[in-house]
Protein backbone atom coordinates (compact mmCIF):
# COMPACT_ATOMS: atom_id res chain seq x y z
CA UNK A 1 0.00 0.00 0.00
CA UNK A 2 1.28 3.47 -0.90
CA UNK A 3 2.29 6.13 1.63
CA UNK A 4 1.33 9.81 1.68
CA UNK A 5 4.90 10.64 0.70
CA UNK A 6 4.69 8.45 -2.41
CA UNK A 7 1.33 9.96 -3.43
CA UNK A 8 2.73 13.47 -2.94
CA UNK A 9 5.74 12.67 -5.11
CA UNK A 10 3.59 11.11 -7.82
CA UNK A 11 0.94 13.87 -7.89
CA UNK A 12 3.30 16.83 -7.41
CA UNK A 13 1.60 18.26 -4.31
CA UNK A 14 2.79 18.60 -0.73
CA UNK A 15 2.28 15.82 1.82
CA UNK A 16 0.09 18.19 3.87
CA UNK A 17 -2.20 18.92 0.91
CA UNK A 18 -2.42 15.23 0.00
CA UNK A 19 -3.27 14.30 3.60
CA UNK A 20 -6.01 16.94 3.91
CA UNK A 21 -7.60 15.97 0.57
CA UNK A 22 -7.63 12.25 1.35
CA UNK A 23 -9.07 12.90 4.81
CA UNK A 24 -11.82 15.08 3.27
CA UNK A 25 -10.84 18.31 5.03
CA UNK A 26 -13.66 20.71 4.07
CA UNK A 27 -11.62 23.74 5.16
CA UNK A 28 -8.98 23.11 2.49
CA UNK A 29 -9.34 25.57 -0.39
CA UNK A 30 -7.87 23.96 -3.52
CA UNK A 31 -9.18 23.63 -7.10
CA UNK A 32 -11.45 20.67 -7.79
CA UNK A 33 -8.96 19.44 -10.38
CA UNK A 34 -6.31 19.20 -7.61
CA UNK A 35 -8.60 17.06 -5.45
CA UNK A 36 -9.45 14.80 -8.37
CA UNK A 37 -5.80 14.31 -9.34
CA UNK A 38 -4.78 13.44 -5.76
CA UNK A 39 -7.70 11.02 -5.31
CA UNK A 40 -7.01 9.41 -8.70
CA UNK A 41 -3.31 9.01 -7.82
CA UNK A 42 -4.14 7.53 -4.41
CA UNK A 43 -6.52 5.04 -5.99
CA UNK A 44 -3.98 4.04 -8.63
CA UNK A 45 -1.35 3.46 -5.93
CA UNK A 46 -3.86 1.47 -3.82
CA UNK A 47 -3.75 3.86 -0.85
CA UNK A 48 -6.19 3.35 2.01
CA UNK A 49 -7.15 5.98 4.59
CA UNK A 50 -7.24 5.24 8.31
CA UNK A 51 -11.02 4.89 8.09
CA UNK A 52 -10.73 2.31 5.31
CA UNK A 53 -8.06 0.36 7.17
CA UNK A 54 -10.20 0.31 10.31
CA UNK A 55 -13.15 -0.92 8.25
CA UNK A 56 -11.05 -3.76 6.83
CA UNK A 57 -9.87 -4.75 10.30
CA UNK A 58 -13.44 -4.69 11.62
CA UNK A 59 -14.57 -6.93 8.77
CA UNK A 60 -11.86 -9.44 9.61
CA UNK A 61 -12.90 -9.46 13.26
CA UNK A 62 -16.52 -10.09 12.26
CA UNK A 63 -15.34 -13.02 10.19
CA UNK A 64 -16.89 -11.79 6.92
CA UNK A 65 -16.27 -13.97 3.90
CA UNK A 66 -14.28 -11.91 1.41
CA UNK A 67 -15.74 -11.77 -2.08
CA UNK A 68 -13.55 -13.30 -4.77
CA UNK A 69 -15.50 -12.25 -7.87
CA UNK A 70 -18.45 -9.99 -8.65
CA UNK A 71 -20.50 -9.97 -11.84
CA UNK A 72 -21.06 -6.47 -13.28
CA UNK A 73 -24.28 -6.05 -15.27
CA UNK A 74 -24.86 -2.76 -17.11
CA UNK A 75 -28.06 -1.22 -18.43
CA UNK A 76 -26.45 0.79 -21.24
CA UNK A 77 -24.37 -0.33 -24.18
CA UNK A 78 -20.96 1.22 -24.83
CA UNK A 79 -22.48 3.47 -27.49
CA UNK A 80 -25.20 4.71 -25.13
CA UNK A 81 -22.61 5.43 -22.44
CA UNK A 82 -20.85 7.81 -24.82
CA UNK A 83 -24.04 9.91 -24.89
CA UNK A 84 -24.44 9.81 -21.09
CA UNK A 85 -21.15 9.11 -19.32
CA UNK A 86 -22.77 8.90 -15.86
CA UNK A 87 -23.26 5.14 -16.00
CA UNK A 88 -19.77 4.61 -17.38
CA UNK A 89 -18.29 6.51 -14.42
CA UNK A 90 -20.55 4.60 -12.04
CA UNK A 91 -19.29 1.29 -13.45
CA UNK A 92 -15.69 2.52 -13.27
CA UNK A 93 -16.16 3.34 -9.59
CA UNK A 94 -17.54 -0.14 -8.89
CA UNK A 95 -14.56 -1.68 -10.68
CA UNK A 96 -12.20 0.59 -8.73
CA UNK A 97 -13.63 -0.54 -5.38
CA UNK A 98 -13.37 -4.17 -6.50
CA UNK A 99 -9.73 -3.61 -7.43
CA UNK A 100 -9.01 -2.01 -4.05
CA UNK A 101 -10.62 -4.97 -2.29
CA UNK A 102 -8.82 -7.45 -4.58
CA UNK A 103 -12.13 -8.68 -5.98
CA UNK A 104 -12.34 -9.77 -9.60
CA UNK A 105 -14.92 -7.70 -11.51
CA UNK A 106 -16.48 -9.94 -14.17
CA UNK A 107 -18.38 -8.15 -16.98
CA UNK A 108 -21.61 -9.99 -17.83
CA UNK A 109 -23.19 -9.63 -21.27
CA UNK A 110 -26.81 -10.43 -22.09
CA UNK A 111 -27.28 -13.08 -24.80
CA UNK A 112 -30.49 -12.23 -26.67
CA UNK A 113 -30.69 -15.66 -28.27
CA UNK A 114 -30.39 -17.61 -25.02
CA UNK A 115 -32.11 -14.96 -22.86
CA UNK A 116 -29.37 -15.22 -20.27
CA UNK A 117 -26.32 -13.39 -18.97
CA UNK A 118 -22.95 -14.81 -19.94
CA UNK A 119 -20.09 -14.51 -17.46
CA UNK A 120 -17.23 -15.70 -19.68
CA UNK A 121 -17.16 -19.05 -17.90
CA UNK A 122 -16.01 -17.46 -14.65
CA UNK A 123 -17.96 -18.07 -11.41
CA UNK A 124 -19.29 -15.04 -9.52
CA UNK A 125 -20.21 -14.69 -5.84
CA UNK A 126 -22.96 -12.21 -6.67
CA UNK A 127 -24.05 -9.49 -9.10
CA UNK A 128 -23.98 -5.70 -8.98
CA UNK A 129 -26.54 -4.44 -11.51
CA UNK A 130 -26.06 -0.82 -12.63
CA UNK A 131 -29.15 0.98 -13.95
CA UNK A 132 -32.76 -0.01 -14.62
CA UNK A 133 -33.71 -3.48 -15.83
CA UNK A 134 -36.88 -5.16 -17.08
CA UNK A 135 -38.36 -8.12 -15.22
CA UNK A 136 -37.06 -10.44 -17.96
CA UNK A 137 -33.50 -9.19 -17.48
CA UNK A 138 -33.79 -9.50 -13.70
CA UNK A 139 -35.04 -13.07 -14.10
CA UNK A 140 -32.01 -13.79 -16.29
CA UNK A 141 -29.71 -12.49 -13.53
CA UNK A 142 -31.43 -14.68 -10.96
CA UNK A 143 -30.64 -17.74 -13.07
CA UNK A 144 -27.00 -17.01 -12.24
CA UNK A 145 -27.42 -16.03 -8.59
CA UNK A 146 -29.97 -14.74 -6.08
CA UNK A 147 -27.32 -12.46 -4.57
CA UNK A 148 -27.99 -9.21 -6.47
CA UNK A 149 -27.50 -5.57 -5.47
CA UNK A 150 -28.96 -2.85 -7.70
CA UNK A 151 -27.25 0.51 -8.15
CA UNK A 152 -29.24 3.59 -9.25
CA UNK A 153 -32.53 1.70 -9.18
CA UNK A 154 -34.75 -0.23 -6.80
CA UNK A 155 -36.93 -2.66 -8.77
CA UNK A 156 -38.50 -4.28 -5.70
CA UNK A 157 -37.61 -3.10 -2.19
CA UNK A 158 -39.11 -6.25 -0.70
CA UNK A 159 -36.80 -8.52 -2.69
CA UNK A 160 -33.54 -6.72 -3.45
CA UNK A 161 -30.95 -4.51 -1.79
CA UNK A 162 -30.32 -1.30 -3.69
CA UNK A 163 -28.11 1.78 -3.62
CA UNK A 164 -29.56 5.01 -4.97
CA UNK A 165 -28.79 8.70 -5.04
CA UNK A 166 -31.28 10.98 -3.31
CA UNK A 167 -32.91 12.90 -6.17
CA UNK A 168 -35.21 14.88 -3.89
CA UNK A 169 -32.26 16.25 -1.93
CA UNK A 170 -30.31 17.02 -5.10
CA UNK A 171 -33.10 18.83 -6.93
CA UNK A 172 -33.96 20.85 -3.82
CA UNK A 173 -30.32 21.88 -3.43
CA UNK A 174 -30.31 23.05 -7.05
CA UNK A 175 -33.58 24.99 -6.95
CA UNK A 176 -32.80 26.63 -3.61
CA UNK A 177 -29.36 27.66 -4.85
CA UNK A 178 -30.73 29.24 -8.03
CA UNK A 179 -33.35 31.15 -6.06
CA UNK A 180 -30.68 32.42 -3.64
CA UNK A 181 -28.78 33.69 -6.67
CA UNK A 182 -31.82 35.76 -7.63
CA UNK A 183 -33.21 33.54 -10.42
CA UNK A 184 -37.00 33.29 -10.44
CA UNK A 185 -37.62 32.32 -14.08
CA UNK A 186 -36.11 28.84 -14.17
CA UNK A 187 -36.53 26.20 -16.87
CA UNK A 188 -35.97 22.51 -16.22
CA UNK A 189 -34.34 20.87 -19.23
CA UNK A 190 -34.93 17.14 -19.57
CA UNK A 191 -37.28 14.44 -20.85
CA UNK A 192 -40.88 14.23 -19.72
CA UNK A 193 -40.56 10.48 -19.18
CA UNK A 194 -37.77 7.99 -18.58
CA UNK A 195 -37.34 4.40 -17.44
CA UNK A 196 -38.27 3.69 -13.84
CA UNK A 197 -36.63 1.07 -11.62
CA UNK A 198 -38.33 -1.71 -13.61
CA UNK A 199 -37.33 -0.18 -16.97
CA UNK A 200 -40.96 0.85 -17.58
CA UNK A 201 -41.73 4.30 -19.01
CA UNK A 202 -42.70 6.68 -16.19
CA UNK A 203 -42.48 10.42 -15.36
CA UNK A 204 -38.83 11.48 -15.08
CA UNK A 205 -37.93 11.77 -11.38
CA UNK A 206 -35.90 14.99 -11.40
CA UNK A 207 -38.46 16.81 -13.54
CA UNK A 208 -41.32 15.63 -11.32
CA UNK A 209 -39.48 16.72 -8.15
CA UNK A 210 -38.52 20.07 -9.75
CA UNK A 211 -42.20 20.85 -10.36
CA UNK A 212 -43.15 19.91 -6.80
CA UNK A 213 -40.39 21.97 -5.18
CA UNK A 214 -40.96 25.08 -7.30
CA UNK A 215 -44.67 24.92 -6.42
CA UNK A 216 -43.64 25.35 -2.78
CA UNK A 217 -42.28 28.80 -3.67
CA UNK A 218 -45.69 29.93 -4.93
CA UNK A 219 -45.60 33.12 -7.02
CA UNK A 220 -41.97 33.80 -6.10
CA UNK A 221 -40.71 31.34 -8.73
CA UNK A 222 -41.94 30.90 -12.30
CA UNK A 223 -40.89 27.44 -13.49
CA UNK A 224 -41.23 25.88 -16.91
CA UNK A 225 -39.85 22.92 -18.81
CA UNK A 226 -37.96 22.35 -22.05
CA UNK A 227 -38.33 18.85 -23.46
CA UNK A 228 -35.14 17.10 -24.59
CA UNK A 229 -34.16 13.45 -24.94
CA UNK A 230 -31.09 13.76 -22.72
CA UNK A 231 -28.36 13.87 -25.39
CA UNK A 232 -26.15 16.92 -25.88
CA UNK A 233 -27.13 17.29 -29.55
CA UNK A 234 -30.88 17.20 -28.91
CA UNK A 235 -30.51 19.59 -25.97
CA UNK A 236 -28.61 22.08 -28.14
CA UNK A 237 -31.30 22.01 -30.84
CA UNK A 238 -34.32 22.35 -28.55
CA UNK A 239 -32.83 24.93 -26.20
CA UNK A 240 -31.61 27.05 -29.12
CA UNK A 241 -35.16 27.07 -30.53
CA UNK A 242 -36.50 28.14 -27.13
CA UNK A 243 -33.95 30.93 -26.60
CA UNK A 244 -34.18 32.56 -30.03
CA UNK A 245 -37.91 31.95 -30.24
CA UNK A 246 -40.24 32.09 -27.25
CA UNK A 247 -37.76 33.44 -24.69
CA UNK A 248 -36.50 36.18 -27.02
CA UNK A 249 -40.02 37.57 -27.47
CA UNK A 250 -40.69 37.99 -23.75
CA UNK A 251 -40.16 41.19 -21.76
CA UNK A 252 -36.90 41.12 -19.78
CA UNK A 253 -38.60 40.47 -16.44
CA UNK A 254 -40.21 37.29 -17.82
CA UNK A 255 -37.22 35.82 -19.64
CA UNK A 256 -35.74 32.57 -18.36
CA UNK A 257 -32.37 33.34 -16.76
CA UNK A 258 -31.41 29.88 -15.48
CA UNK A 259 -31.51 26.37 -16.96
CA UNK A 260 -31.68 23.40 -14.57
CA UNK A 261 -30.42 20.49 -16.69
CA UNK A 262 -31.17 16.91 -15.76
CA UNK A 263 -27.76 15.45 -16.61
CA UNK A 264 -24.29 16.51 -17.68
CA UNK A 265 -24.82 15.82 -21.39
CA UNK A 266 -27.82 18.14 -21.31
CA UNK A 267 -25.77 20.81 -19.53
CA UNK A 268 -23.14 20.67 -22.28
CA UNK A 269 -25.89 21.01 -24.87
CA UNK A 270 -27.39 23.93 -22.96
CA UNK A 271 -24.10 25.83 -22.88
CA UNK A 272 -23.65 25.35 -26.62
CA UNK A 273 -27.25 26.46 -27.26
CA UNK A 274 -26.77 29.67 -25.29
CA UNK A 275 -23.56 30.41 -27.18
CA UNK A 276 -25.17 29.56 -30.55
CA UNK A 277 -27.87 32.12 -29.72
CA UNK A 278 -25.28 34.88 -29.37
CA UNK A 279 -25.53 34.91 -25.57
CA UNK A 280 -23.09 34.02 -22.79
CA UNK A 281 -22.97 31.60 -19.87
CA UNK A 282 -23.31 32.74 -17.11
CA UNK A 283 -23.56 36.46 -17.95
CA UNK A 284 -26.87 36.13 -19.82
CA UNK A 285 -28.17 32.68 -18.87
CA UNK A 286 -26.94 30.47 -16.02
CA UNK A 287 -26.69 26.68 -16.39
CA UNK A 288 -26.91 24.15 -13.55
CA UNK A 289 -25.78 20.58 -14.24
CA UNK A 290 -26.60 17.25 -12.61
CA UNK A 291 -24.37 14.18 -11.93
CA UNK A 292 -21.15 16.25 -11.87
CA UNK A 293 -18.62 13.84 -13.35
CA UNK A 294 -14.94 14.74 -13.69
CA UNK A 295 -15.72 16.40 -17.04
CA UNK A 296 -17.69 19.23 -15.39
CA UNK A 297 -14.62 21.02 -14.04
CA UNK A 298 -12.93 21.02 -17.47
CA UNK A 299 -15.78 22.62 -19.42
CA UNK A 300 -15.81 26.28 -20.48
CA UNK A 301 -17.19 27.61 -18.28
CA UNK A 302 -16.75 24.93 -15.59
CA UNK A 303 -20.21 23.63 -14.73
CA UNK A 304 -21.82 24.26 -11.36
CA UNK A 305 -23.76 21.10 -10.62
CA UNK A 306 -25.34 18.64 -8.24
CA UNK A 307 -22.59 16.20 -7.30
CA UNK A 308 -23.48 12.52 -6.99
CA UNK A 309 -21.06 10.56 -4.83
CA UNK A 310 -20.54 7.72 -7.28
CA UNK A 311 -17.55 6.45 -5.30
CA UNK A 312 -19.71 6.08 -2.19
CA UNK A 313 -22.50 4.42 -4.18
CA UNK A 314 -19.98 1.90 -5.51
CA UNK A 315 -18.49 1.22 -2.09
CA UNK A 316 -21.95 0.84 -0.54
CA UNK A 317 -22.89 -1.65 -3.28
CA UNK A 318 -19.84 -3.86 -2.65
CA UNK A 319 -20.42 -3.71 1.12
CA UNK A 320 -24.11 -4.58 0.66
CA UNK A 321 -23.24 -7.58 -1.51
CA UNK A 322 -20.66 -8.73 1.05
CA UNK A 323 -23.28 -8.60 3.82
CA UNK A 324 -25.82 -10.35 1.61
CA UNK A 325 -23.46 -13.23 0.83
CA UNK A 326 -22.42 -13.55 4.48
CA UNK A 327 -26.02 -13.83 5.67
CA UNK A 328 -26.04 -10.49 7.49
CA UNK A 329 -29.14 -9.29 5.62
CA UNK A 330 -32.43 -10.44 7.15
CA UNK A 331 -34.56 -8.10 5.06
CA UNK A 332 -33.60 -6.20 1.87
CA UNK A 333 -32.58 -2.58 2.38
CA UNK A 334 -32.28 0.53 0.23
CA UNK A 335 -29.46 2.99 0.88
CA UNK A 336 -29.92 6.61 -0.24
CA UNK A 337 -26.64 8.43 -0.86
CA UNK A 338 -26.91 12.23 -0.36
CA UNK A 339 -25.77 14.82 -2.89
CA UNK A 340 -24.00 18.15 -2.65
CA UNK A 341 -23.76 21.23 -4.85
CA UNK A 342 -20.38 22.03 -6.43
CA UNK A 343 -20.00 25.72 -7.26
CA UNK A 344 -17.96 26.52 -10.35
CA UNK A 345 -18.43 29.07 -13.11
CA UNK A 346 -21.71 28.45 -14.96
CA UNK A 347 -24.05 30.36 -12.62
CA UNK A 348 -24.05 34.08 -11.98
CA UNK A 349 -25.90 35.95 -9.26
CA UNK A 350 -28.70 37.91 -10.90
CA UNK A 351 -28.39 41.64 -10.35
From TrEMBL:
Protein name: Transcriptional regulator LacI family
SUPFAM superfamilies per the UniProt record, alphabetical: lambda repressor-like DNA-binding domains, Periplasmic binding protein-like I
Molecular functions (GO terms): DNA-binding transcription factor activity; transcription cis-regulatory region binding
Source organism, top-level taxon: Bacteria
Domain HTH lacI-type, residue spans: 2-48
Record organism: Butyrivibrio proteoclasticus (strain ATCC 51982 / DSM 14932 / B316) (Clostridium proteoclasticum)
UniProt KW keywords: DNA-binding, Transcription, Transcription regulation
Amino acid sequence: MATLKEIAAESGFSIATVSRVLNEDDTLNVPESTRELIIETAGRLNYKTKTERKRDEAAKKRGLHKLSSVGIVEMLSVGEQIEDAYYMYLKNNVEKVCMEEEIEAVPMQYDEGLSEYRNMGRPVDGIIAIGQFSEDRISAMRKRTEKIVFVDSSPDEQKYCSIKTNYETGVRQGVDYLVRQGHVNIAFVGPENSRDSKAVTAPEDRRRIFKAITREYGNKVHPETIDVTGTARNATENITKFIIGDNNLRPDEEKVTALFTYNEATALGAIKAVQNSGLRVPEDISVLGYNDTVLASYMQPPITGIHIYMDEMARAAVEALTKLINGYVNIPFTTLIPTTLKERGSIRKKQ
